[in-house]
Amino acid sequence: MKQHYRLASLVGVVAIVAAACSGSSATPAPSAAAPSAAASQAASAAPSAAASQAASTAPSQAALSGSLTIWEAYGASGSAEKDAFDTMVAAVKAANPGLTVNVLDVPFNNLFNKFETEAAAGGGPDLYIAPNDSIGKEARAGLLKDITSMQGQLTAAPYNISQVAITADTVDGKLYGIPESMKAVALFYRTDMLPTPPTTVADWLTTVKTTKLGLVYGANGGGAYYQWGFYGSYGGTILDSTGKCAATANSGVADSMKFLTDFKAAGGILYQNDNDAKTDFLAGKIAGFIDGPWQTGDLQKALGSKLAVAPGPSGPGGAFQPMAAPDSFYINDSSQNADLAVNFALAMLGQEQTFMDKAGHIPANTALVPTDPITLGFAQQIKTGFPRPTAKELDNYWGNFGNAIAAVVDKGTNPTTAVADACTAMDKANGK
Question: Alpha carbon of 252 to those of 27, 30, 73, 207, 315: distances in Å?
């Protein structure tokens, strides 16, 4: 499912983890700081094979009975995720003959708006699964069930949900999601065209002079989501600890946008959306592009051993820090079947080996360790990722900064001016 962003839709870990875990409602600003020890441990834990096997099975519980409706948007990113999800649902239904599950595949760009509109009127599904793009908005509107009482259960065996994932589903000190997997963007590349991937922004500018690479920048294609990782590369920040825009505090955010124009001038290709980049990648027109693990299944099927993953480029400000966020099950607070929906979600966690093996999901369960090199590559990128903030002020980041990025690329707007204007508009919308 596409990450990861709120279009107005994305995934290492920094000081925000400590604040959210402590129950604070304040969300510290993104920074280029090193990941916390707890986050790194959660992302890289490697238990024994026996532990992994045990973790893949949900605990015994009474058979599930009744009817549920769940929404997902996995069809938006190709067949692999959708097929894996349907296989998981079928397995849960087979184990619970009295359970009826109605699955609706909703176009990703419509998923959150559709849920919010229907749930606000007392309708909508019993639960849905998606990235945590809109969790803050929906939780504060009273649309999601508060499941804070489940936190201890979710972090214990057999679920073993990482604290990073729990933090990302926590809003104002309360838990609103049951995390399934973690996602962040990284560099997909073809080893037949690019044997050694570039590791720094300077390397990227040199590489594209002879070997084409791609980046997604368009406002209608999640540019503000994909660009987030480059803020870390250049030491930029978006929010300070008060929720005020901090993008003008130094030149990092503007420098990250200037990189896009330098990249294009050097021979790189910029795309309005990741589906166009994916098409060119499979056709061999580009040797690599930055995207998320939702593309893994289809790309592996087409390219096999020619496909590899590496972290995005580091820069003068530090490591590439894409948003790290979970795909989670969210329970509709107006559902008449909330308890059944919770138990169904837990049963689905018992099937997450399927998501990992068939669709490249990086489990939020720290006892499940990927063996596939592509999935491992994304797990490595998550170590330096930034937990997606749930601060309400971020709602006004997407449109303003997405438009700023597009203006820099399409209209030649000065990056410093574009960032200043976006920051001012964001603060005005947030009443700062």
Answer: 20, 12, 34, 23, 10
Considering only CA atoms, which of 32, 321, 351 is closest in space to residue 180? 351
Least confident of 140-149, 206-215, 294-303: 294-303
- Say yes or no to pLDDT of 55 above 50: no
Contact (Cβ atoms closer than 8 angstroms) between residue 254 and residue 309 = no
Nearest-Å Rg of the Cα atoms of the chain is 20
CA distance 27 to 393: 10
User: Are 386 and 12 contacting, i.e. CB atoms less than 8 angstroms apart?
Assistant: yes
**Tokens read off for 315:** 């820069």
- Give helix then strand counts, H and E, for the chain: 19, 14
Rounded to whole angstroms, the Cα distance separating 175 from 60 reads: 24
What b/e readout covers 352-391, taking b as 16+ CB neighbours within 10 angstroms? bbbbbebbbbbbbbbbbbbeeebbebbbbbbbbbbbbbbb
Looking at residue 29, its pLDDT comes to: 32
Cis ω before 158 (30° cut-off from 0): yes
Q: How far apart are CA 104 and CA 294, in angstroms?
A: 18
Instruction: Return the residue matching tokens 């009975």.
Output: 65
The pLDDT > 70 percentage for the chain reads 85
| Site of tokens 């990073």 | 164
Query: Distance between CA atoms of 232 and 338, rounded to whole angstroms?
Result: 39
Only one residue has tokens 């299944």, namely 297
Asked whether residue 53 carries a pLDDT value surpassing 80, the answer given is no
When the pLDDT of each residue in the chain is averaged and rounded to a whole number, the result is 87
pLDDT value, residue 78: 62
Confidence of residue 47 (pLDDT cuts 50, 70, 90): very low
Whether 271 and 263 have beta carbons less than 8 Å apart is answered as no
User: What pLDDT shows up at residue 75?
Assistant: 87
Q: What does the block give as tokens for 308?
A: 């590899």
Task: Note whether 320 and 176 are within 8 A (CB).
Answer: no
DSSP 132-153: STTHHHHHHTT-B---GGGHHH
Q: How far out from the chain centre does Cα 234 lie?
A: 21
Q: Exposed (0-12), middle (13-18) or buried (19+): which is 92, by Cβ within 10 Å?
A: buried
Q: Identify the pLDDT of residue 219.
A: 79
Q: DSSP letter at 238?
A: S
pLDDT at 245 over 60: yes
> Taking a C-beta distance cutoff of 8 angstroms, is the pair 6, 115 a contact?
no
Output phi, psi for 101, to 5 deg: -125, 120
